[in-house]
Amino acid sequence: MSFNNLDTLYRQVIMDHYKNPRNRGTVEGDALTVDMNNPTCGDRIQLQLQVEDGIVKDAKFTGEGCSISMSSASMMTQAIKGKKLDDALNMSKAFSNMMLGEEMDTDDLDFGDVEALQGVSKFPARIKCATLAWKAMEKGVQEDN
């Protein structure tokens, strides 16, 4: 597949998550809740994680922002559901590295649609948008431990 076709596909995946967000809403019952915002552009998110026995049983978000931040939140919640907290944190670290333009092997991380955000690394002003939900997840896990 050519670069232009791949770029188009990635844009379509991002817009699909933006227009049809997965896991948008609130978690029923007890949940770890984190509110974060990106003051430079106005993106804000409330992330809720339901963790049982060290495993993310459910993950949902509410908030508003650009297509990058909201689609990243949708993708992240999909990617971490059912994962051990350590695996979710490793995914977050790998995602941050990807945003810094570092080459990485994502085969063992099961990133799914998240890989569509690789191109954001070429736009430094948008990296904070893409990482907002991931930073919220890290903060929530760290505060809970």
UniProtKB/TrEMBL annotation:
Residues 10-129 form the NIF system FeS cluster assembly NifU N-terminal domain. Pfam families: NifU_N (PF01592). InterPro entries: NIF_FeS_clus_asmbl_NifU_N (IPR002871). This is Iron-sulfur cluster assembly scaffold protein SufU. It comes from Virgibacillus siamensis.
